[in-house]
Specification:
Blueprint: E1 7-12, E2 17-22, H1 30-38, E3 46-50, H2 56-64, E4 69-74, H3 77-89, E5 95-98, H4 105-110, E6 118-123, E7 128-129, H5 139-145, E8 146-147, H6 151-162, E9 163-174, H7 178-185, E10 189-197, E11 208-209, H8 210-215, E12 224-231, E13 233-234, E14 237-238
Parallel strand pairs: 3-4, 3-6, 4-5, 6-9, 7-8
Antiparallel strand pairs: 1-2, 9-12, 10-11, 10-12, 13-14
Amino acid sequence: MSDSGQFTDDAFLGGQLRLRQPKSGHRAGHDAMLLAASTPARSGDRVVDFGAGVGAAGLALARRVAGIELVLVEIDPGLAALARDNAAANALAADVVVLDVTSNASAFAAAGLTPDSADVVLMNPPFNDSERHRASPDKAREIAHMATAATLESWIHAARRILKSDGILSMIWRAEGIAEVLAALDRGFGSVRILPVHADSASPAIRSDRSSFVQRWLLREPFRLLFWCRSKVNGGQKSTDQHHQ
């Protein structure tokens, strides 16, 4: 990744954040900035960004909320290296971990991501249905965009495992997949909030809880949904799947 002609240097947040990223393949854009802007975090929180790519969402959140302990998790070593460089170039502290989000608990622990160790997890999982969308010939783009049948459940399970009790999960997903997300969040998460995202301002997005969102589905269908929820507390202990490691 040493050829500068393969990369672009792009400004985000009105120039407050500059990211170096590949010219082709998966590129950071609006989804990452929306996810960062909608993720609640406080100074001192340990925040883990799953599928961080070049670090866009996590670093944008770190720019907005000073003093977070940021961990960027990325499966692609090349993108992880760019994320590490981008953090340094923007004078933002971040620990970059090369790891498949679908890895087991032992792999996470070896990377310093032990159970009940994170206050916030944000993620933009691959969400294009492989049966409805044609895979990109670019392998990095395919990995970033194409979901398997187990992708959503695996990513949410990984977030549930490392989150502290009452920790926050923030994620973005395609609008038509609302039923899949609510079903996956039903085990181990509660207090779900959903924000529809539209492509234009003609249809204002409203924030709503699970029941009112379904009952008051907007006349004009959104193209993305942002979700926030909290890991459940059960008798003082977080609700987890002990059998699913």
